[in-house]
Amino acid sequence: MAKSKATPRLQRFSGFVENFQSHLQLDQGRSQMTATSYEQVLKAFQEFLRSEGLDLAPQNIDRNLLIEFVGDCQRRELATGTIALYSQALRIFFSWLHQQGLNAHDPGKGFRPVRTIRNIPRPLSEGEVAEVRSALWKETRVMPRMRMLVELLYGSGLRIGEAWRAKLGDIERGEPSKASIRVLGKGSKVRVVPVSPIFLRALDEYLQTRPRHRRPADRIFLGQNRKPITLPHLRRQLTLHLEASGLKGFKPHRLRHSFATHLLDHGADIRAIQELLGHSSLATTQVYTQVSLTRLADVYHRCHPAAQG
Length: 309
Fold this sequence. Notes:
- The chain is mostly helical and 309 residues long.
- The protein has helices spanning 2-27, 32-51, 63-75, 80-99, 126-138, 144-155, 160-165, 197-207, 231-244, 253-265, 270-277, 282-289, 293-303, and strands spanning 171-172, 180-184, 190-194.
- The radius of gyration is 24 Å and the shape is globular.
């Protein structure tokens, strides 16, 4: 009997989840990966409700139930980052249900996602970056696209996914000092960032190897079959080349971190860095740049009157 009552509610809840996924991708421009991650969270929440013998109808869910679910995740010793994702997904889902008029109340209102300290990889030193760039240009077996990719990640601060999606028509050359690339970032937000002369040099070398593919709509990064290379393959190639340069356990995101940190070290305004990185929140940029306590202490002792005496 209980099963026959619960099944229609479960089916209705699943329908809400499907519509929510469409909303994330079509209305908010979230990636397929994000939509899938949120779907998995909501399925885990449904399973929690089922295991507790609770009604699956959204209108019967309150904030205390969300808190109980997070507590259950903690008892199962899930990673802090995973619990943070669960909390955020639930809050966004129930807020959307309420905004769509599908739920009379929003149990996620006032429900604060678990905050976690992000494990941000250490930025490379300027010396390490110089060695990597030098090695890539000296090694004849390194394909020009690897040199381009490093310059986009370090020289322009792009995410590897942003570089992978870039097209030839996104590049504005003009004067060398004003060359730039149009970037489609998270949430379909567009920004324009400068590109380095080294990137342009690598691009010219790269285009010589693919003379038949120079239309503005063509992807920058193509494979040997003249088709767009997959993102996992591009990431894997970069990791292999940089590990060969001595960077063991390398993650491509370290180049973007290094871009931000080195700009800040040389006096760039943090809000300008925020714009270049495409962060919607300055707080994200502040964490991202990883300003060292040593550097902050040095600035204090050099610049503040109270530190002089």
